[in-house]
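Hi V.,

You were right to ask for the full record rather than a summary. Here it is.
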Amino acid sequence: RSFECDLYGKCFSQSGHRNVHRRTHLGERPYKCEQCSKCFEQAGTLKRHALTHTGEKPQQCPQCGKCFAQAGNLKRHVLTHTGEKPHQCLQCGKCFAQARHLKTHALTHTRKKEHQCPQCGKCFSQAGHLKRHALTHTEEKPHQCLQCGKCFTQAGNLKTHALTHTGEKPHQCLQCGKCFAQAGHLKRHALTHTGEKPHQCLQCGKCFTQAGNLKTHALTHTGEKEHQCPQCRK
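Predicted structure:
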């Protein structure tokens, strides 16, 4: 038996699911938080919201012990250990760990780049990206490490740097158990297990696991010497 929504005709296998669906059309929110009076369409949503008042975090990561209020947040966190990026862009093939990051990235293919840098004319699809880019012209570094005073242009870079003080290595290889401070380092390490060499030289076809190794190799074709002595220019 199916239960049909009398407003839009959509069918559901259970009457409860149909009733929840109807609330999205009617704007009904029968579940009220006793702490802040905020209302919700579903009891489960209210239950998750209540944790923001109690501070309870029942979802624990088995890898590092970090706790979360919601199972979804734990699920996203686990990807930082595995390096897995299940959300792929259909336009360019780039992969992301979280769906919201893919959604933001997708705008780079469809959205006009209406935010222009007054310094160099480079355009961006998001105001936040322009703001971060502007720091490259001013050399401003607003994010300072409280441990050593080193400054960074982006908060993410500061967060990564902070791990050098704590010694924390939250990204663990599932193959051999080796741990890394950064997800990118884990990703490069994983290639040593698979044997994959995604970076290919266009001159001779030789392949490398890391882009940096390919860049160094490319100099053998051009004759360029990347590192020059400041004293004798050799």
